[in-house]
Amino acid sequence: MRDVADAAGVSTATVSMIINDKKGARIGADARRRVREAIDELGYRPNALAQTLVHGSSRFIGLVADAIATTPFAGQIIHGAQDEAWKHGFVLLVANTEGNEEAERDAISMMLEHKVRGILYSTWFHRAAEVPEALRETDFVLVNCFSNDGTGRAIVPDERQGGRTATELLLQQGHRRIAFINATTPAPARTGRLLGYREALAATGIAFDPALVFEAYPDQEGGYGAAEQLLGLGVTAVFCYNDRLAMGLYDALRQRGLAIPEDMAVVGFDNQEVIAAHLRPPLSTVALPHYELGAAGVRVLLGIDAAAPDAVIRLACPATPRESAGEGLADRRAS
C-alpha cells in the first residue's frame, strides 16, 4: 500500500479509503485516477486476511457435504451454489467429508477460523440430518436435508409435487390404470412421491387402488425383479420411484418381448442424464432440482431470499418428458 501511495503521490490513508470504497471520503477525481493507475501498474492486491480481521467476515461461503461431489447428479448442488456465490462476489469453499464425522468437524472448524460468511450443509439424498453443533456458531442453511429437531432454514425438493407431476405425465396420455413401484427404504421421497401419485389420481376422479402400489429396492435389480408382479396387475403404465429402477424394468419388459411405450408406458424420477436420456426409448422422468437447491441455499444464506429462521422451503421438481410415457404415440398410430 505504501508503494501505491508513493507512486500516486498520496498518503496511505487515501489509498486505503479508495480501495475500501470509504463512504463520504472527500478525495478528488484526479487522486482517485492516480491511485487506480498505480494499483494496475504495480499489480497490488489487498490483504484478504487483514480485511477479514477488520470486517469480521470474509468473501467465502462454506459448503460441507457428505458425498455430493462424488455422485453423478447431486454434484449439481455444488455447481448451483458456486455460480450463485460468484454472482454476489463470494467464493465457495467445498469440503466433501464422505460421512466421516471427524473430517466434518475439522472442515467446519477450518471454515469458522476463516470467518466464512456462512455455511451450507448438504446431503446427497433428501433426508433428515443431525445438525453439527459447531454450525450454530455461524449462519447456516441446510440443503437437500432438514434437521431432526426442526430448527434451521432448509431447502429441499418438493417430493409430493414431483410424484403428482410424474403421475400426470401418464394421465395426460390417457392412461387410467397406473401402477407405482415405490422404494423399500424409508425416506421423505418414499412418502412424498406416493402422496403425489394419490393426489394426481384423485384430481382425475380415479379411485386409489392399493393393489397397484408395491415396493422394490430402488436400483436396477429391483426394477428388473418387479416386472413379474407388475405384469400381473393389468396396468398400461407405471411410475417408478427412480430412474435406476425404471432402467431395470426396461430390461425385464424387453426380455418378455414388450415394447415401451406401446405395451407399457414408463415414467421415472430423478432425471439422471446418464440413464434417462440414453435409454431406448429415452425415459420420461421428473428432475430433482439439484442446481437450484444449491443456488437457493446461497440466496437464503445471504438474505437475498427471505426465509423464517426455521423455514423449510420446497422447490418444484420439473417434468422432463421424453418418449417412454407415450408422448406423441396417438399421433404416430394415426399416421
From TrEMBL:
Taxonomic source organism: Galbitalea soli
Name of one Pfam family that matches: LacI
One of the record's GO molecular function terms: DNA-binding transcription factor activity
Cross-referenced InterPro entries: HTH_LacI (IPR000843), LacI/GalR-like_sensor (IPR046335), Lambda_DNA-bd_dom_sf (IPR010982), Peripla_BP_I (IPR028082)
Full protein name: Substrate-binding domain-containing protein
Superkingdom of the source species: Bacteria
SMART domains: HTH_LACI
Domain HTH lacI-type residues, every copy: 1-55
Keywords: DNA-binding, Repressor, Transcription, Transcription regulation
